[in-house]
Here is the input.
Amino acid sequence: MKPKMKLIPVLLLAFLLVVSLIPPVGITAQAEDAEPGVCYLKVFTDPSDTEPYGYQTVEIGSAPVQPEDPNLEQEGKTLIGWYKDRALTVPFDFSSPLYVDTDIFARYENSENVVGVNFFMGPDEDYPFADQMLLKGELVQQPADPSNGDLVFAGWYSDRELKNKYDFSTPVQDYLYLFARFVNEEDCYTVWIYLNADDEDPLVGFDVPKGDPIPAREDPGKDDYIFTGWYTDKELTQPADFTTPRSEDVSLYAGWKSTKEEDCYTVLFYLNAEDEDPLSGIDVPKGDPIPKPEDPAKEDYEFTGWYTDKELTQPADFTIPRSEDVTLYGGWKLILPDNPFVDVKSDDYFSDPVLWALKKNITKGTDDTHFSPETICTRGQVVTFLWRAAGSPEPDSAVNPFTDVKADDYFCKAVLWAVKEGITKGTSDTTFGPEQSCTRGQVAAFLYRAEGSPKSGSIENPFTDVTSGQYYYDAVLWAVTQKITQGTGAGTFSPDATCTRGQIVTFLYRDMN
Here is the structure.
């Protein structure tokens, strides 16, 4: 039910329109010369104004007086309140003393979207002692607890019968009346709050009406400690119940766990098992289990969980207490499309790579239902696969040195890009050989150069048919360290064997995933 509005006679309305040009009570049109011992509250009616509407003189250390609505000419607008910032996000507190010149800004909103909240000292009161204006959907700001002689304040209620305690986390959609409830002290029980279980004196105490549960308490905060909750015993074994009605006095003790370095173990989180640097790290009190974080996200992948080994075989346990440092690695499963190819079976080594290549538009198959995984790949096809996997970048130069690469060939841009990136030089100065079959050694070299020719580290050469000095030697050893290939078996890599379509997409898949 909206507050009643009084009709204003025509003459009075005309008078108000005239005086609307005069600053309201407590506000002067301009600041007086600076006086010792005073500061100024500068009043802006619009956050975009550069000059204030008026000033209020305030003794230093005193609280200012809340101005009346300074603008009676804003038709269809209602003053919501006063704010400390031009963005109108921080309400101004008129109970706080001023020590320096301060700006405040009026917030106006369309009247149809504004609701009011009236606060009454009791269910029998006819007139509110305080009010708030706010937009529909906003939260009521809980005022300071009112006092009423020797009575104990017992909360705000939305009905005069004091049966429905108001929840200040509920957005307001209509005009609201809130009534203060007071009870006699003998009808209350006392709650004593101790910051530490071994403290002799309580931090604070307050009275609660008998039959009400203990009011929920926030984390009191303590440097170098994590708050673990409120307890009703000094041994911190009985968590406080904030839902059950009670009538007896109770003491609450805060529980803490140290976050000092010597009292914690460290958890490092790696997004991928092969990452050099962790995604994040946290310190956890010794004796606590690892706190389970939210699942990370990664494009094209489904998160499978956290693991304690790089091989992703040991799932992390977030329930057991621990005291030693631990490293966790994220596990991922590629999200693949449905398989349209009759010649690619789910248990084929190239099954996931083929579907990945299809999803990434690296290749579409030889027709709608066949991928032809055993078909030999040409040099033109291989550099095209590499180029598409790199995002199909435009070549830096349109100069084409190859007589066997035409501008309208599907592999033209891929060849020019590969040459510019130093991935291949062609079969001669003027030929690329796009239709020549590509060997396994060539594919390893292409991949290796596309990655910038990284060092493979110290590794024993496992292949009898790969010897130092061959152009693909470093590339093959690098591919082994990256688990891109393990060879063809029996200590051989078969560098001169032709590379099939199934093999090349598998090499690419392992390299990029």
Summary: The CA atoms of residues 423 and 449 lie 5 Å apart. Residues 1-22 have pLDDT under 50 and may be disordered.
